[in-house]
Design brief:
By secondary structure, this protein is of the alpha+beta class. The chain contains 8 helices and 4 strands; from the N terminus they run E-H-H-E-H-H-E-H-H-E-H-H. The chain has helices at residues 10-14, 18-28, 42-48, 58-65, 80-88, 101-105, 120-130, 144-147, and strands at residues 3-8, 31-38, 70-76, 114-116. The chain has a 4-stranded antiparallel sheet. The model has no long low-confidence stretch (mean pLDDT 98). The structure holds inosine-5'-diphosphate and magnesium ion. The site of inosine-5'-diphosphate (IDP) has 9 residues, from loops.
């Protein structure tokens, strides 16, 4: 089944939004298969945001992501990559719809609370970058029959 990579960024952790954010994905029906609180190294931050390395905001972004703990998450479920992006909302929180995580909790594009993979292939490489195989847990939630026909 499809998996995506989510990171609650330092602002989300500092603002005590972790339970609120994880709760939204749980209540939607997605399954947690990976979850850890961690300080991000400069190397990991630069790899994760490698596609943006020529952008003017890149140094500040790396500094921000490494400044304070993040919560790294892997979610599993049908269509979870695109659905999680919808739950997260547009990159600029001022343009994100109310009801999305960024739309409800953010104001500034440099403090947009959460990361979510943008495509299935990106998700696969981000999961491999952030998690070891043995840190991902396969399990069968007893609720599955009430979420999937
Ligand atoms: P996404 O997180 O919605 O996928 P991307 O365009 O991939 O957005 O940008 C990655 C991250 O870089 C954003 O979530 C945000 O933290 C940061 N970022 C993007 N554009 C800007 C900007 O113009 N100023 C400051 N930070 C930015
Ligand atoms: Mg992106």
């Amino acid at each position: 089944m499809e998996r995506t990579f989510i990171a609650i960024k330092p602002d989300g952790v500092q603002r005590k939004l972790v339970s609120e954010i994880i709760g939204r994905f749980e209540k939607k029906g997605f399954k947690l298969v990976g979850l850890k609180l961690m300080k991000v190294s400069k190397e990991l931050a630069e790899q994760h945001y490698g596609v943006h390395k020529e952008r003017p905001f890149f140094p500040g972004l790396v500094e921000f992501i490494t400044s304070s703990p993040v919560v790294a998450i892997v979610l599993e479920g049908d269509g979870v990559v695109a659905s999680a992006r919808k739950i997260i909302g547009a990159t600029n929180p001022l343009a994100s719809e109310p009801g999305t995580i960024r739309g409800d909790f953010g104001v500034n594009i440099g403090r947009n609370i959460i990361h979510g993979s943008d495509a299935v292939e990106t998700a696969q490489s981000e999961i491999a970058l952030w998690f070891k195989d043995e840190e991902l847990v396969s399990w069968d939630p007893t609720m599955t029959a009430w979420i999937y026909e």
